[in-house]
Design goal:
single chain; about 130 residues; mainly alpha; about 100% helix
């Protein structure tokens, strides 16, 4: 009788181990499927991200294209650039001087106009 109890206990234990092994294998397969799906999504996502990166770099290059050409021009023809700057510089200083004179003259004209208006107001009130 004792032998039967141990045999049934051993059979139940092996059955439980088989059930647990089956559950473990199912979970492992599920995890492997999820991992494969994740890798597939990453494989699809990588080219898109890479293309976005390349587009952003191209856009930045296009924005800076003007600066690069100016830099190259400055490196190739410094004498021409200096001459162009010398030609532009007097016109720039002249325009700045004209603006400065205009700013100085405006208050003077405004004060003279105010005096005239005061005189006309005094004459009209008297």
């Amino acid at each position: 009788m004792m032998l039967v109890n141990f045999k049934s206990y051993a059979e139940r234990s092996t059955d439980a181990v088989e059930v647990l092994t089956g559950q473990r294998n199912e979970k492992f397969e599920s995890t492997a499927d999820r991992r494969r799906g994740k890798n597939a999504l990453e494989a699809l996502d990588y080219p898109r991200l890479f293309n976005d990166h390349v587009r952003a770099k191209n856009a930045e290059t296009e924005r800076n294209k003007h600066d690069v050409t100016n830099l190259e021009m400055l490196g190739k023809h410094p004498e021409e650039c200096e001459e162009a700057h010398k030609l532009k510089n007097p016109t720039i200083t002249n325009s700045h001087e004209k603006q400065a004179v205009g700013f100085e003259e405006r208050p003077k004209h405004a004060n003279a106009k105010a005096k005239k208006l005061r005189k006309t107001v005094r004459r009209q009130t008297n």
